[in-house]
Amino acid sequence: MSLADRVEAAAASIAVAALTSAFAAGVWVVRRVFTNQQQIAMLQREIETRDDRRVDDREALNELKTDVREMRSEVREIIRDMRT
Prior knowledge:
Blueprint lengths: L2 H81 L1
C-alpha cells in the first residue's frame, strides 16, 4: 500500500467521521428543541391548571366568607333573643 493510498484512506475516514459527527449534532439539536417544546407545552398546561384552581379557590373563599357573615348575623340574633 503506497503513501497515496494511505492518505486517501485517511481522508475518507476523516470525511466519514465529520459527516457522522455533523449528523449526530443535527439529531441532538432536533431532539433538544423538540424536548424543550414539550417542556414548554407542559409548563403552559400546568400554569393553566393552576390558574383554574386559583379561580376555584377564590370562589370557595368568597362562599366561605359569605357563610361566616351569615353565621355571625345568626349568632347575633340568637344572642339578642336570649337577652330579651
